[in-house]
Amino acid sequence: MSEQPQPPAGVAPATDLLAELRERFPRVAVVHDWLTIPGGSEDVVVQLLEMFPHAELFTSVYDPAPWPPIITQRPVHASFLNRIPGATANYPKLLPLMNRAFESFDLSGFDLVLSSSHANAKNVHTPPGTLHVCYCHTPMRYAWEPEFLAGEEIGRAMRLALPPLLRKLRKDDLAGAARPDVFVANSAYVAARIERFYGREAHVVHPPVDVDHYLGLERAADDFYLVFGRVVPYKRVDLAVAAGDLLDRRVKIAGGGRALEAVRAAAGPRSSADFLGRVSDADRDALLGGARALLFPGEEDFGIVPVEAQAAGLPVIAYGVGGARETVRDGETGVLFEEQTPASLAAAIERFEALTLDPEAPRRNARRFGREQFRAQLAAVIAAAV
After folding, report:
1. Can you tell me the distance from the alpha carbon of 132 to that of 179, in angstroms, rounded to the nearest whole number?
2. Residues 342-345: contacts with CB within 8 Å, 24+ apart?
3. In this structure, are residues 313 and 360 in contact, taking their beta carbons and an 8 Å threshold?
4. What are the Glycosyltransferase subfamily 4-like N-terminal domain coordinates in residue numbering (predicted)?
């Protein structure tokens, strides 16, 4: 697998390369799994549209309400699933039908297809001669790694139905993985999983992060640790709360999600954890500026929050598996810990407190993950494929 592709020798700067690609590919289709709730993978879609402003969008389910004009003011082709009542709210339940939905799209006439996929978007059929580049956020986690569902509330009937359903998902996912001409992974960790599950090599282009906003934030560290983001089982927010209680450290949890009440209940009445729920952008910035460090105990394919935190000058204490190994420099911009246990995280906090870090090191590190870098590196991959 090849990492951090650079423009071929003699190629002009990224803006000129993009101009050449736009001329080379007059009709571009951007395909994304679903457009319902803004998140990190949707930021990639926005950057793809910045690269190719004339592109048309294809997706399984589309709710136009939360999206900026760069999405809404262009052709957006939603699949037949979008006509199902309640589809935009209940799209996860439609997963068994997603493969059929993407295979139903007619992409004839397009010169370039860019799929942004963590599920079925890559499974589209493209005509001969059309270049298909897949930006893969991850192979379908729940299909290939059923342990990813640990902690989720799944009824008995659904658990009985899961094995044949997952077999079907794996079959469709593997068939779809043969269709892109080029795979691009959002981290070396994901590239290794693409090779493991699909038998395909992948370039590595880290996802775009709005580092410029966070680089301008001021730091005035207070005496608390921060957990920020969705509170869902695999993010293991419970470990941060438990480690804080072991050390008698204040931990603030900013975010909501389906695991919030379970984590709150496990914390108990004597816990020093402070559950803030969802916070405004201004409050988020204040928390990033005031925390001692960000606690990131989950396993992520990449993990945008640790990059945002470092751009704000905030060190990160993260589980040292997955994308964190690529975004956090142990002993320089934070600390990595080895086991997903309260004791291992507590030891990492104590190690962090004994370190003297360069306060500007996190910001310098975060600059590697800006939006311009993403566009330049992805343009180089596309140009090389041509």
Report:
1. 8
2. 342/239, 342/242, 342/243, 342/245, 342/246, 343/243, 343/246, 345/239, 345/240, 345/242, 345/243, 345/295, 345/297, 345/317, 345/319
3. yes
4. 38-212
pLDDT of residue 92: 86
CATH of the domain spanning 211-368, picked from 3.40.50.1970, 1.25.40.10, 3.40.630.30, 3.40.50.2000: 3.40.50.2000
What's phi and psi for 326, nearest 5 deg? -100, -20
Q: Please give the structure tokens belonging to residue 62.
A: 């589309």
AA letter at 58: F
DSSP state of 151: T
What predicted TM-score, i.e. pTM, was given to this entire model? 0.88
- Say which CATH architecture domain 14-208+370-385 belongs to: 3-Layer(aba) Sandwich (3.40)
Q: What's the mean per-residue pLDDT of the chain?
A: 92
Q: Would you place residue 42 in the very low, low, confident or very high pLDDT band (cuts 50, 70, 90)?
A: very high
- Delimit the CATH 3.40.50.2000 region(s) of the chain: 211-368
- Give me the helix-helix angle, 40-51 and 371-385, nearest 10°: 60
The model's pLDDT over 204-248, given as tens digits with 9 standing for 90+, comes to 999 999 999 999 999 998 999 999 998 989 899 999 999 999 999
3-state secondary structure of 78: strand
DSSP structural state of residue 248 = T
Under a CB-based contact definition with an 8 Å cutoff, are residues 295 and 240 in contact? Answer: yes
